[in-house]
Amino acid sequence: MLRTLGDKSPKIDPTAFVSEFAYLVGDVELGPYSSIWPGVVIRADSGRIQIGAGSNVQDNSVLHADADAKIGDNVTIGHGVVCHARLIGNGSLIGNGATLNDGVILGESCLVAAGSTIVDNSEFAHNSLIRGTPAKAIGKIRSRHSELMQRAAAAYVNRIAIYKSSNLHQTSTSVS
User: Fold this and answer.
1) How far apart are CA 143 and CA 36, in angstroms?
2) Residues 30-66 pLDDT 10s
3) What is the Cα–Cα distance from 106 to 124, expressed in whole angstroms?
Protein backbone atom coordinates (compact mmCIF):
# COMPACT_ATOMS: atom_id res chain seq x y z
CA MET A 1 0.00 0.00 0.00
CA LEU A 2 1.32 3.41 -0.96
CA ARG A 3 0.19 6.25 1.32
CA THR A 4 0.52 10.02 1.28
CA LEU A 5 1.50 11.71 4.54
CA GLY A 6 0.87 15.45 4.58
CA ASP A 7 2.22 16.61 1.22
CA LYS A 8 4.71 13.73 0.79
CA SER A 9 3.96 10.68 -1.34
CA PRO A 10 6.08 7.69 -2.35
CA LYS A 11 7.76 8.03 -5.76
CA ILE A 12 8.16 4.67 -7.45
CA ASP A 13 10.22 4.16 -10.61
CA PRO A 14 8.06 2.29 -13.16
CA THR A 15 10.63 -0.54 -13.38
CA ALA A 16 10.59 -1.09 -9.59
CA PHE A 17 8.56 -3.77 -7.83
CA VAL A 18 6.47 -3.17 -4.71
CA SER A 19 4.62 -6.15 -3.26
CA GLU A 20 0.91 -5.79 -2.85
CA PHE A 21 1.52 -6.54 0.85
CA ALA A 22 4.13 -3.84 1.53
CA TYR A 23 3.39 -0.48 3.22
CA LEU A 24 5.21 2.66 2.06
CA VAL A 25 4.26 6.03 3.53
CA GLY A 26 5.58 9.55 3.13
CA ASP A 27 8.75 10.71 1.38
CA VAL A 28 9.94 7.38 -0.04
CA GLU A 29 11.78 7.21 -3.36
CA LEU A 30 12.48 3.92 -5.17
CA GLY A 31 15.05 3.80 -7.96
CA PRO A 32 15.01 1.70 -11.12
CA TYR A 33 14.74 -2.07 -10.68
CA SER A 34 14.56 -1.79 -6.91
CA SER A 35 12.22 -4.22 -5.14
CA ILE A 36 10.17 -4.19 -1.96
CA TRP A 37 8.84 -7.58 -0.77
CA PRO A 38 5.85 -8.74 1.34
CA GLY A 39 5.53 -7.40 4.86
CA VAL A 40 8.02 -4.56 4.39
CA VAL A 41 7.23 -1.23 6.07
CA ILE A 42 9.03 1.91 4.89
CA ARG A 43 7.95 4.87 6.98
CA ALA A 44 9.41 8.19 5.79
CA ASP A 45 7.74 10.62 8.16
CA SER A 46 10.84 12.34 9.56
CA GLY A 47 12.85 12.63 6.35
CA ARG A 48 13.24 11.17 2.87
CA ILE A 49 14.20 7.53 2.46
CA GLN A 50 15.84 6.96 -0.92
CA ILE A 51 16.46 3.45 -2.21
CA GLY A 52 18.81 3.16 -5.16
CA ALA A 53 18.76 1.24 -8.40
CA GLY A 54 18.75 -2.55 -8.19
CA SER A 55 18.39 -2.61 -4.39
CA ASN A 56 16.01 -4.94 -2.57
CA VAL A 57 14.30 -4.90 0.81
CA GLN A 58 13.20 -8.41 1.72
CA ASP A 59 10.19 -9.77 3.58
CA ASN A 60 9.20 -8.27 6.94
CA SER A 61 11.92 -5.63 7.13
CA VAL A 62 11.26 -2.16 8.56
CA LEU A 63 12.97 1.03 7.38
CA HIS A 64 12.55 4.29 9.25
CA ALA A 65 14.88 7.21 9.90
CA ASP A 66 14.86 10.29 12.07
CA ALA A 67 16.41 12.32 9.21
CA ASP A 68 17.04 11.78 5.50
CA ALA A 69 18.35 8.30 4.74
CA LYS A 70 19.92 6.81 1.64
CA ILE A 71 20.19 3.18 0.63
CA GLY A 72 22.65 2.99 -2.28
CA ASP A 73 22.50 1.01 -5.50
CA ASN A 74 22.52 -2.81 -5.57
CA VAL A 75 22.01 -3.12 -1.80
CA THR A 76 20.39 -6.20 -0.30
CA ILE A 77 18.49 -5.77 2.96
CA GLY A 78 17.67 -9.28 4.15
CA HIS A 79 14.56 -10.68 5.78
CA GLY A 80 13.43 -9.21 9.10
CA VAL A 81 15.93 -6.34 9.23
CA VAL A 82 15.23 -3.22 11.33
CA CYS A 83 17.01 -0.32 9.67
CA HIS A 84 17.33 3.24 10.98
CA ALA A 85 20.64 3.82 9.15
CA ARG A 86 21.48 7.19 7.63
CA LEU A 87 23.53 5.70 4.76
CA ILE A 88 24.10 2.23 3.36
CA GLY A 89 26.74 2.33 0.63
CA ASN A 90 26.40 0.81 -2.82
CA GLY A 91 26.70 -2.97 -3.07
CA SER A 92 26.27 -3.67 0.65
CA LEU A 93 24.37 -6.61 2.13
CA ILE A 94 22.54 -6.56 5.46
CA GLY A 95 21.98 -10.10 6.75
CA ASN A 96 18.66 -11.47 7.95
CA GLY A 97 17.50 -10.20 11.32
CA ALA A 98 20.16 -7.50 11.66
CA THR A 99 19.42 -4.19 13.39
CA LEU A 100 21.00 -0.90 12.30
CA ASN A 101 20.20 1.87 14.77
CA ASP A 102 19.91 5.64 14.25
CA GLY A 103 22.62 7.44 12.33
CA VAL A 104 24.55 4.37 11.15
CA ILE A 105 26.78 4.93 8.12
CA LEU A 106 28.09 2.00 6.08
CA GLY A 107 30.63 2.47 3.31
CA GLU A 108 30.31 0.72 -0.03
CA SER A 109 30.33 -3.08 -0.24
CA CYS A 110 29.89 -3.73 3.48
CA LEU A 111 28.57 -7.05 4.73
CA VAL A 112 26.62 -7.11 8.00
CA ALA A 113 26.25 -10.64 9.37
CA ALA A 114 22.80 -11.99 10.14
CA GLY A 115 21.51 -11.11 13.61
CA SER A 116 24.08 -8.37 14.22
CA THR A 117 23.17 -5.11 15.99
CA ILE A 118 24.92 -1.89 15.00
CA VAL A 119 24.62 0.79 17.69
CA ASP A 120 23.68 4.44 17.10
CA ASN A 121 25.96 6.63 14.99
CA SER A 122 28.46 3.88 14.16
CA GLU A 123 30.46 4.31 10.96
CA PHE A 124 32.19 1.61 8.92
CA ALA A 125 34.67 1.95 6.05
CA HIS A 126 34.16 0.51 2.57
CA ASN A 127 34.44 -3.29 2.28
CA SER A 128 33.97 -3.92 6.02
CA LEU A 129 32.89 -7.33 7.29
CA ILE A 130 30.71 -6.53 10.31
CA ARG A 131 29.45 -8.95 12.94
CA GLY A 132 28.18 -9.18 16.51
CA THR A 133 26.14 -7.41 19.15
CA PRO A 134 27.25 -4.73 19.44
CA ALA A 135 28.62 -5.08 15.90
CA LYS A 136 32.29 -4.56 15.15
CA ALA A 137 34.29 -4.66 11.93
CA ILE A 138 36.11 -7.99 12.01
CA GLY A 139 37.99 -7.53 8.76
CA LYS A 140 37.50 -6.80 5.08
CA ILE A 141 35.18 -8.67 2.73
CA ARG A 142 36.83 -11.27 0.52
CA SER A 143 36.13 -12.03 -3.13
CA ARG A 144 33.69 -14.80 -2.16
CA HIS A 145 31.69 -12.27 -0.09
CA SER A 146 31.69 -9.77 -2.94
CA GLU A 147 30.44 -12.40 -5.38
CA LEU A 148 27.67 -13.46 -2.97
CA MET A 149 26.57 -9.85 -2.51
CA GLN A 150 26.46 -9.19 -6.26
CA ARG A 151 24.54 -12.43 -6.92
CA ALA A 152 21.98 -11.59 -4.21
CA ALA A 153 21.22 -8.16 -5.67
CA ALA A 154 21.02 -9.51 -9.24
CA ALA A 155 18.72 -12.37 -8.21
CA TYR A 156 16.16 -9.93 -6.82
CA VAL A 157 16.29 -7.74 -9.93
CA ASN A 158 15.59 -10.89 -11.96
CA ARG A 159 12.57 -11.75 -9.78
CA ILE A 160 10.80 -8.49 -10.60
CA ALA A 161 9.56 -9.63 -14.02
CA ILE A 162 8.28 -12.95 -12.65
CA TYR A 163 6.28 -11.30 -9.86
CA LYS A 164 4.94 -8.50 -12.06
CA SER A 165 3.83 -10.98 -14.73
CA SER A 166 1.95 -12.90 -12.01
CA ASN A 167 0.26 -9.66 -10.89
CA LEU A 168 1.72 -9.86 -7.36
CA HIS A 169 2.62 -6.19 -7.12
CA GLN A 170 1.12 -2.77 -6.56
CA THR A 171 -0.82 -2.35 -9.77
CA SER A 172 -0.62 1.41 -9.61
CA THR A 173 1.93 3.93 -8.52
CA SER A 174 -0.87 6.20 -7.37
CA VAL A 175 -1.14 6.87 -3.68
CA SER A 176 -4.02 7.45 -1.35
Assistant:
1) 27
2) 999 999 999 999 999 999 999 999 999 999 999 998 9
3) 5
